[in-house]
Amino acid sequence: MNRTVLAASVTWCLWCMACAAPTLVAITSFTVLKRMGAADPAAGAWFAGDAAASGSFVAGQVAGTAFGAMAWVKLAMAPVALVLLARSMLRRPTWTVALLVAAGVMTAASHVLDTRTAAVGTAWHAAVHAGNTEGALMYKSTMDALHPWAERFNGAASLTAIAAGAVALAHAAPRRAGS
Fold it and tell me: For the whole model, what pTM was predicted?
C-alpha cells in the first residue's frame, strides 16, 4: 500500500471516529445516568423529585464535553483526510469528488452546530448551578431548539464521512507487488 493511501486511511478513520464517538458517549451516558438517577449536587433543588431529569442533566454535561471536544478534532481531521483521500484516488469520478465535498461541508456545519450547542448547554448548566431560573429556562429553550439540528447534522457528517472515505479508497491506488 502506498504512503498516501495509508495516510488517507488513517486520517479517514480518525475523522470518522471524531464524528461518531460523541454520539456513542451521549447514548451511553444518557442511558446509564438517567437510569441511575445521577445527581449533580450543584444543581440544588432544580430537579428535586425527578431522578430521570437529574440524570439527564448530568448526562448532558458529559455528552456536551464530548461533542465540544470532538467538534474541534473532526474539524481538524476532515480537511487533512479530504486532501489525502482525493490524492490517493487514481481516478476521480465527479460523483466521488462531490461526495468528498459534501462530507467536508457536513463536517463544517456539524462543527458549528456542535460547538454552539455545547456552549448553550454549558450556559444552561451554569445558570442552573447559579440558581438563575430565568436564565436556565432561556438556555434550556435554546438547547431544545438547537439539539435536534445538531443531532441531524452530526449524523449526516458521520454518514457522509464514512461513505466518502470508503468510496474514495475504493478508487485508490492498488497495492504494488511486494509491498
Answer: 0.84
